[in-house]
Amino acid sequence: MTDSANPKRHWRQSAAFIWVLGLVILSAVGWFDYATGYELHVFAFYFLPVWLLSWRVGLRSGVYMSLLAAGTWFAADYASGHPYSSLAIQGWNALMQFAACIMVAGIASVVRRQLRAQEKLNAELFATMAQIKRLEGLLPICAACKQIRNERGEWEVMEKYITTRSEAQFSHSVCPNCARQLYPQYVDGEST
């Protein structure tokens, strides 16, 4: 079943749904961070929506979510009453949160791209192996007419059997021995 045949599945995989889900997760993490105060660090949980957006939508969305995550952390930290000797220190911490989120976004995006490339290579490898496997092993062949018995137990002309299971092409001619036996009137007494 394709995505167009299943609109519910398509909605779950759409960028808008992933964005909404990421914003819900970010809001929950921000509220939890605010509610628990500045003594309990939930720094790593801000990575969840960043990873989700980078993995499912792309690096650009991951970068935007990183900015939102750093801003949410800054707001939760500020609202929780965390005392700093300078606002610049709190800004520096928010910048470090943003940098860490950017790294998570980049890593998630690169890993996803590499996995997709690996899946494509694996599919090509399995297809090639299946094609090679079709021509491996013992082939039951008739000693008289040279037909080959296929997987269904039916006899096929050798050229058809090999052509349908490989990229081999055939051209026909007659060898010198057969030419002398079959067409002696056309072959002079030379041996080749």
Overview of the molecule:
Helix content is 64%, strand content 2%. By secondary structure, the protein is mostly helical. The chain has two domains: 126 residues, no CATH class; 55 residues, no CATH class. It has a two-stranded antiparallel ribbon with strand order 1-2. A hairpin with a 5-residue loop joins strand 1 and strand 2. The longest helix has 48 residues. It is rod-shaped.
What would a concise description of this structure say?
With 192 residues, this protein is an all-alpha fold.
* Series of secondary-structure elements, N-terminal to C-terminal: HHHHHEEHH
Q: How much is the radius of gyration in Å? A: 34 Å
Q: How many strands, which pairing sense, and closed or not: the largest β-sheet?
A: 2 strands, antiparallel
In spatial order, strands of the major sheet run: 1-2
- Strand composition percent: under 5%
Q: Tell me how many strands there are.
A: 2
Question: With helices defined by DSSP (H or I, 4 residues minimum), what is the helix count?
Answer: 7
> N- to C-terminal separation?
62 Å
Shape: rod-shaped
Q: Give the proportion of residues in helices.
A: 55-70%
Return the average pLDDT rounded to an integer: 86
* Poorly predicted runs of 5 or more residues: none
Classification by helices and strands: mainly alpha
Number of domains: 2
